[in-house]
Amino acid sequence: MNLFFDLFVGGVSIGACYALVALSMVIIYKTSEVPNFAQGEMAMISTFIAFTIMDGYGAGFWVAAALTLVFAFLLGLVLEISFLRPADNPGILGSIVITLGAEMILYGLAGWKWGANQNPFPIPFSEYSGFTFGAIRITEVNLWTIVASLAITLMLFAFFRFTKMGTAMKAVQQNPFAAKAMGIPTRRIMTFTWGLSSSTGAGAGMLIAPIATLDPNMMLDPMLKGFAGAVLGGMTSLPGAAIGAYILGLIENFFGGYVSLEFKSVVAFAVIVMILCVRPSGLFVRHYEKKV
Amino acid sequence: MDMKRGYYEDIELCRTWTSLFGLILLVCLFIATPFIIGDYNLYLINLIAINSIVAIGLNILVGYTGQISLGHAGFFAIGAYACVLSMLKLGLPFVVALPVAGFVSAGFGFLLGLPSLRLEGPYLAIATLGFGMAVTQIISHSEFTGGHMGLEAPKMSLGPFVANTSSQQYAVIIAVAFMMTVAAVNLMKTRVGRAFRAIRDSEIAAEAMGINVLKYKTLSFAVSAFYAGVAGALMAFALEHVSAGSFNLILSITFLAMIIVGGLGSIMGSILGAALLTYLQIKLQVIQEAPIIGPLLLDLSRSYFTPEGLPNIQSIIIGSIMIAIVIFEPYGVNGIYLRFKRYWKMWPF
Prior knowledge:
heterodimer; A: 292 residues; mainly alpha; two-stranded antiparallel sheet; B: 349 residues; ABC transporter involved in vitamin B12 uptake, BtuC; two-stranded antiparallel ribbon
């Protein structure tokens, strides 16, 4: 039974990281129908910035985290303005290729700047000491990951629900033409979306870095899992994507613990392909057939 | 002159004396190449030919049928391992093992084509991507396929003729690549190719016209996987070694980049894109040895970056090319060529 709870906590904790990645992808996908494959590398670069601020300038964790979120926001703006905006109606394949290109550029930059070394990412929480609730034992890092992820998620939901900017973004997501007619600056909203998404991704990066090690390949796997989780829940629903990512984290961890550690990542994708065959738009989204 | 009286004329290899002459010239050029250039350049041409085969296959799927695949490294890996394993474990000769690799890969392509009937856009992308990842994971953890260490490829042999050097491999690879190119060009001119394009332009309209979408979509996946499988098998011999680690997501992205750069929906474009990107990849890895830019970049890396990370510049450049092509030239290099041709056709006027 102890193993079960350990795996559960681990699964929720990794699911929390995936959920942030999934949310950051869905925020962009909903406004512009661009599946952003560069999300992982954007988060990775941001995490490297946090590392450099802490390691090179001796700043504390919280200062570095705050600065990194600002940097990530600017990075998102720059990418949207320089790569997505000039493309004239690129279509789904075109936009995938643009984001893949951006991914390769960012990956190359990080590899060039920081090399392939694996750097430790220090955080003010311990990996070994923890708390015990009955049969459940949870380490500080896991607790911090889950709490931080939930906090960011709640902030995002509050943002979309209660602020004027959030409402405007929802309007653009639902109908860009009508939003434009109502006087919403749609292009600026799109750019802002990228910034917001990039910051969310940077949050995920800083949560993942202490669990994994910090190197240019760090976000490759979490990005795919986060994307897969979003697809599992449905790319057009924010809560759906987050829940899908948690489910994916749990499935993966339980399979890794009980069946086979080696094929842990394979099973996640196998499950997704099977679920997509039954529900082609994800678990929590109604499927719309395209009209001619 | 340009009138056609039957569908058969569409797929005739040489309709005019000019095209026959061009074809003969091309074949002569292929035969003459190994006598003109060195062994290393031949190796480069081999890689280009192999990547062209994958690019043509991928273009059939992406450019002609309008599906997205981020898992072609998986088919490539299946082809490579199927060929090497069937030669090592079953003792098949190379001539048999090569098509076997293609057909095994095509079988997996058919299987992956089934979910594609209901998926589109990012959902299809993630499904194919997951397939590619799964293949690599399974291969690298299975004892049967040699695990992480990979397998040594046996020698490429056609009866008594054994291909050891790059120039001997060149003969085999170019012959296969040439045949598969002609096959693809002709396939796209037949009923099948027209059905693919109809599905790309509008699936529902195609279905209403009586095209069996199930059949042609899975067929497209299977054909595309067949090409990737054969290319993978050839690559195993060109590199003399297969290991699971090399068939990663980056490889799938590179294949996709080839057809985007070359031009979607064009066989000629696939070859151009494959040639350009393969050449860039090989040359950019040793960019520090380039005459003027090399030392400059090395200085720059020493002061702002890390010198050992310099080869990463290849992904920066390839990524920039991908983005630039989508933004400025959606039809790729082939589009530039077509515009050029049209301009000179009416030149003095």
